[in-house]
Design brief:
The protein is 25% helix and 30% strand. The protein has 210 residues and is of the alpha/beta class. The chain has one domain: Stationary-phase Survival Protein Sure Homolog, Chain: A (3-Layer(aba) Sandwich), CATH 3.40.1210. It has a five-stranded mixed sheet with strand order 3-4-5-9-6. A two-stranded antiparallel ribbon has the order 1-2. A two-stranded antiparallel sheet has the order 7-8. Helix 2 links the parallel strand 3 and strand 4.
Length: 210
């Protein structure tokens, strides 16, 4: 983004809740949260809910997740946040399930320490059929495998298939596959202090600045 870049903003109305000020913004979740942090729509929010996303954000896949990115931007500004995603299995998405989970999570998050971020993944099941809610660590992999399967001039084809690998029972990918809502706490980037000083010294030597 460069200075003076314009983007579209549109006012919306939530059915049954016209008193809630609602906006649609042309951009990914992290950018939407950033605009709110810059006071574009009045006072900053008390917390951020990012999602619900269609499709899970499990394992190392959180690194590519716009939904999780929105929550992490909130943490960077000192707020607590929730990233919530729901399994997509090819059938109708039961949004009322992730809605109910979100309400329960927000009730807890309002009393949590500042800058708490939860990544939650929800099976595509009615609430009454959920196996339960469990804490889970990030899996080594997400629930799907992504591959480039074809290329043409100016075009690329991506194929997403289920990942056939046995994961540890306490991981988010495994547990959501078993019908559990998974809850994982996330923290932002932290510096690594062992190797980077050597990298800086080597770069300085190569540039002749030492």
């Amino acid at each position: 983004m460069v200075d003076g870049t314009e983007f579209e903003v549109e006012r919306h109305e939530i059915p049954g809740a016209p008193h809630i000020e609602t906006w649609g913004i042309e951009g990914p979740p992290a950018f939407c949260v950033l605009t709110a942090m810059l006071d574009a729509f009045g006072p900053r929010p008390d917390l951020v809910v990012s999602g619900s996303n269609i499709g899970t954000n499990c394992g190392r896949g959180v690194l590519q997740s716009g939904t999780v990115g929105g929550a992490m931007i909130a943490q960077n500004f000192g707020l607590s946040a929730l990233a919530i995603s729901q399994v997509y299995d090819g059938g109708p998405v039961l949004w009322e399930t992730s809605g109910a989970v979100t309400v329960a999570a927000v009730d807890w998050l309002l009393h949590a320490p500042r800058k708490t971020v939860l990544n939650i993944n929800v099976p595509n099941l009615p609430v009454a059929e959920l196996a339960g809610v469990r804490w889970a660590r990030l899996a080594a992999f997400g629930s799907s495998n992504t591959a480039v399967v074809g290329e043409a001039p100016g075009r690329m084809t991506i194929k997403v298939t289920p990942r056939e690998v046995q994961l540890k029972p306490d991981t988010d990918t495994h547990q959501v596959d078993e019908g559990f809502v998974t809850v994982t706490g996330l923290v932002g980037f932290r510096h690594e202090g062992d190797a980077s000083p050597d990298a800086a010294a080597a770069m300085g030597s190569a540039l002749g600045t030492d």
